[in-house]
Amino acid sequence: MALLQANKDLISTGMKEFNVLLNQQVFTDPPITEEAMVTVLDDWVNFYLNYYRQQVVGEEQEQDRAVQELGQQLRRLCAPFLDKYKAFLKSL
Q1: How far is it, in rounded angstroms, from Cα 85 to Cα 91?
Q2: pLDDT averaged over consecutive 10-residue blocks of the chain (92 residues)?
Q3: 60-91 and 5-23 are packed helices; what angle lies between their axes, rounded to 10 degrees?
């Protein structure tokens, strides 16, 4: 069963906004550990999921699938950001 168009649009919007958040980050000295950055990213993903959970539409199953899809997409966006952060840590 395909996601409702309204939920697809919300997922797309959430991904765009999350990507803006990631692109705004400036790595500073002193840096936080890689493990701490993973925790920060997890917190950001959970924040976005909680925010968008209130906006998805459809029956409960549809809403759950939309939130799950959004979570997968946000975590996918975290991977290159975390790679960039690891490279930053190695450059110090």
Answers
A1: 10
A2: 87 97 91 96 98 96 96 98 96 90
A3: 20
Query: Within 10 Å of residue 8's Cβ, how many Cβ atoms?
Result: 13
Residue 56 CB burial class (10 angstroms; 0-12, 13-18, ≥19): buried
Give the separation between CA 8 and CA 85, rounded to whole angstroms: 29
Q: What's CA 24's distance to the chain center, in Å?
A: 14
The pTM (predicted TM-score) of the whole model is 0.91
Other Cβ atoms closer than 10 A to 48: 19
